[in-house]
Amino acid sequence: MALVIVVVLLLMVQWSLKSYTRHGESVAVPDLKGINIEKAAQILDDKNLDWQIIDSIFDSNKPPLSVVDQNPKNGSKVKYGRTIYITINATNAPTTELPDLIGRSSYKYAKMQLESFGLKVGEPIYKPDPHLNSVIGMQVGGKPVTKKTRVAKGTTITLILGDGIGGSSMPVPYLIGLRYEEAEFKLKGYSLNVGALVVKEDVVDTAGAIIYKQIPAFGSGNSIRIGEPIDLFISKELPEGIIVDPTLYDIPLEDSIQ
Length: 258
What we know:
Blueprint lengths: L1 H20 L5 E2 L8 H10 L3 E8 L9 E5 L5 E2 L4 E7 L5 E3 L9 H10 L3 E2 L3 E3 L7 E6 L2 E3 L4 E3 L3 E7 L6 E3 L8 H10 L3 E7 L10 E6 L7 E3 L3 E7 L23
Parallel strand pairs: 2-5, 7-12, 8-12, 14-17
Antiparallel strand pairs: 1-4, 3-5, 6-11, 9-10, 9-12, 13-16, 15-17
């Protein structure tokens, strides 16, 4: 009789454990992404699943304290009591230092750098400066900021760019027949830049090569904004048919259209 009682008790305990743990049964993990953590916790509790927050990130496009990731993924079959690991969206953005851009960066490079720091770039503001599209300042909310200023990731940075001295323009200088180093020096004197450099195959010494074509061309009322580039075509010798007028090298720019 004692042996029978022990067997019956063991069977009852085994049946009770199976009933309590729902042995062999599984439940589908719900989709929690985008749901506030409190509501997500209630959903998991209702399905007899445990949960644990293991990480947080910041995404300004998602609601604070919402679920951004989960493991196991939604739809996975798990046993009752399984722990679901959750990553949530933080309430406050982490901060970062502004990079050193003022006076040393173009708009394109500065925009790329700021975005790599998790920042946004607003519409630029142009102010008089000899260097077109160069970064001469930065603002946040209308107030000036400098390098190493700490701002929250996702902050919009407004770049102050040079407009080439108020957008003023000048006649295109005459460069045909000059050697490359001479043309480069002359362009710097006019606050202009060398753009694309097209080199013929016979060129060995770039500095001593001769300009046989330029874009934009000299004359015919052609003008260029200060700070903009001129594309140069160079060869070892002046190509046949190209006529050089040295009297145009020193002509005042204000008279060059005439």
